[in-house]
C-alpha cells in the first residue's frame, strides 16, 4: 500500500509542524539576558546540547510527567529550521541558511538532570518533550532581530520576550555551529528560553507562540497538555534514578520563592583583613604614609597612577571588587556589551564597604561609568569607585557624593572604546595589579593597593610614623634644624622615646639635652 508522502501518517504525525523529521535538534543553553540574570551567570559564548528527534511532538498533543517525579518544566522558544546546508558559514550570511521559524517548547524533567552534566540527554529527550509548530514562518519575510516569543500556562502569560533580549543574535548560532558540524536541511535549532520558565503539573495546558509584530506573521499557538505518566520502574542497575534537591527545585521553578523554599539570608561578613577597627585606622592614615611603609617592605608597585579624585576632601577606604574592560571591538561589543553585561553585574553585586576598581587600560576616550551606576554603587553601600578610564556625566556623578577616582571626564559612552568583559578577577588598574579583596585606600595624593595580609601591620606602622613625624614637625616649628632631627639621630631618638606626644595632643616647646 502506498501513502501520500505530503501528508503525515499516523506514525509520523508528531512531525506535522515541520517539513520533515529533523536529522538533529540542537538546543542552546543560556541565550537571553533575562534568563541569565535569573540564573546569576552570563555566558561569554553560546553553548549547546542535543535532543533526540524522537522527542518531537505536534501541537495539540500531550506530554507525560512520569509518576514519582515532580519537576517537569516548560521553556517557550523560537525554533529555526535549516533550509540549506551550512558548513563554516560567516555571520554575515548565516541567516540565509534558515528557511523557517516556528514555536517550540523545550520541555525538561529536572529530576533526571543530576547525572547528565549539561548534556540533558535523559532530562530533555523524553518522548513528546519537544513540541514544535503549528505553522512555519518564512524566514525571508521576517527580521530575525524583531521576533517575539510568548508562553501561556492555563491562559496566564508566563513568558514574553523578543530577540532584542538575546545575548547572541540568532544568526550567530548558525555561524558558530557550522564551524564544528554541518547543519543539514531540516535540522532544528532551539534558540533558548527567556525568563519565566517554571514547573508544570498534570492538567496544565501550555501554549507557545512565536510572531513578528512588525509584519503580523505568526506560528500560531503550540498547545501541549501535561498528563500523568505511568509508574515507570527506573532501574538503578542500568542508569541513574530520578532525584531532586533544593537547587534543582529553585532552577526548575525559577526562584526559591516560587518553589516554596525559604529565602537564603546571607549575613554581611566583614572581610577579615578590614575589620571596623582596621578601617578606622586606615581612615586616619594618609596614603603617603602607607606608601612609605609598603616601600619599607619591598612593595613599590602599589599605587594606581594617573587617577585623581572628584572629591579630594574625602577619604576612600575599602576592599576591591574588580571589573575588567577589554579594547573595543564591534563584534565583541555585540556579544558582551549589551543587556546584563559584566559592568552592570559588578555594580549590582558590589557590597557594603567595597570599592569597584575598573581596568580600562588608561583609556580616557570614553566613559567607564555615569551617574546611574554611581547611584547604584552608592545605594549598595560601596565605599567608592576607582577607574583608570574616563567618567561621563561628571557633574551628576560628583553630585552623588561617593568617592570616585578617574583619569578625567569624557562625554562618550562605554562602547566607543571598551567592551565590558569580566568581574571579580585579577586586573591591572593604573599600572598596578589589583585582586579582589585587596585593600584600597585613597586621598588627595592618590590611591594605593595594600595586600590584605599586610594591611593591619602597615596601618599600625604608618600611625606610629605619623606620631613621630608630628613630633618632629613640632620641633622644627620651634626653630630646630632638620639635620639630625629628620631623620632622628640617637640623641633625638632617645628624647622622642622618652617624651614623645601622640598626634592630636599639644606639644610643649623643648630642645634636646646637651
Reconstruct the topology from this structure.
Layout: E1 25-28, H1 33-39, E2 48-51, E3 56-57, E4 61-65, E5 72-73, E6 76-82, H2 91-94, E7 98-105, E8 108-109, H3 121-124, E9 130-138, E10 148-153, E11 156-162, H4 170-178, E12 188-190, E13 199-200, E14 205-212, E15 217-218, E16 222-228, H5 246-253, H6 276-284, H7 287-296, E17 303-304, E18 308-309, E19 316-327, H8 330-336, H9 342-349, E20 354-359, H10 371-379, E21 384-387, E22 390-391, H11 394-400, E23 404-406, E24 408-409, E25 418-423, E26 427-429, E27 432-434, E28 439-443, E29 446-450, H12 455-477, H13 490-499
Parallel strand pairs: 1-12, 3-9, 4-16, 19-20, 20-21, 21-23, 22-24
Antiparallel strand pairs: 1-2, 5-8, 5-13, 6-7, 6-12, 7-9, 10-11, 10-14, 14-15, 14-16, 17-29, 18-23, 19-25, 19-28, 26-27, 28-29
Mean pLDDT: 88
Residue runs with pLDDT of under 50 for 5 or more positions: 1-10, 266-272, 501-514
Discrete helix count? 13
User: Approximately what portion of the residues adopt beta-strand conformation?
Assistant: 25-35%
Number of strands: 29
**CATH architectural category of the largest domain:** Alpha-Beta Complex
| End-to-end distance | 126 Å
Helix content: 10-25%
Per CATH, the superfamily of the largest domain is Fumarylacetoacetase-like, C-terminal domain
Q: Tell me the number of structural domains.
A: 2
Largest beta sheet, briefly? 9 strands, mixed
> What is the CATH T-level topology of the largest domain?
Fumarylacetoacetate hydrolase, domain 2
Rg (CA only): 31 Å
Coarse shape: elongated
- The helix-and-strand class reads alpha+beta
Identify the CATH class of the largest domain: Alpha Beta
Quaternary state reads single chain
